[in-house]
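Supplementary Methods, section 5.1.

A reviewer requested that the exact input to the structure prediction be made available. We therefore reproduce it here, unchanged from the version used in the analyses.
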Amino acid sequence: MEVSHFLNFLFFIIFVIIISIIIYKSIEKGLEKSWGEFALKHNLKLQKGTIFSYPSVTGNYKGYKFMLYIFTRYIDGIYRHRKPKAIYTGMALNPTNYINCNMHIYKEGLLSKIGKAIGMQDIQSGDPEFDKNFVIKSSTPDPVVQRILTAPIRTAMLNLKDIIDITVSFRGVTFEKKGFFTDVNSLEALAELMYNLLNSVIEVTKEKAQVEDTVSPAVSSTASIETGKICPSCGYQVPPGNRFCINCGSKL
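The structure derived from this sequence is encoded token-by-token as follows.
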């Protein structure tokens, strides 16, 4: 009797494994078909999946490092001793140099709507339709974000509003979506959107840096004339008329 129960349990385990493999292979085949079509069109490389990994796409997309991949998000972001929480599709577009921008744009949900209702604020783009559908979180100044989000970029995001979850960081632009993302047309539109967004970020932040470099010397010179000298040893601002730094004692 015990042997019979053991065999039934063993057959059940084998059945579950076989079904899991069939499901995995079906998903893998769908990813390879749609991602392969996308990769071929843009001269990117499709890395086929194995029994231990999903397919991925890498290469150069219009001058930027590109990656399309599947990842698992773990509870608390810790891999060891944690169970997987969900599977996500990710897309990343990275420039050669780091960029000075931080921004997260995602579809407005129930919690964000409640937050707005009780007075919590996010950045406004100035486009009512866009602001109604998306939440913008950023440590980058509002005017800079508004300049980055041009009308064509806002329109492209509205066309993909059901899947938008995009982050801009010093590394570049990344996207993530829960589950498997296989629609070729959406992949095309998303990649183009991320490319245009990254171009806009680089252009606007570069202009901002140039303006700051031009203004800073003039402001510094004016401050020195009005408030006194700057100690060359410690950088302390010394009142007018002093011959020695009141902070470190160095001669001026």
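Residues 2-208 form one domain. These observations are discussed further in the main text.
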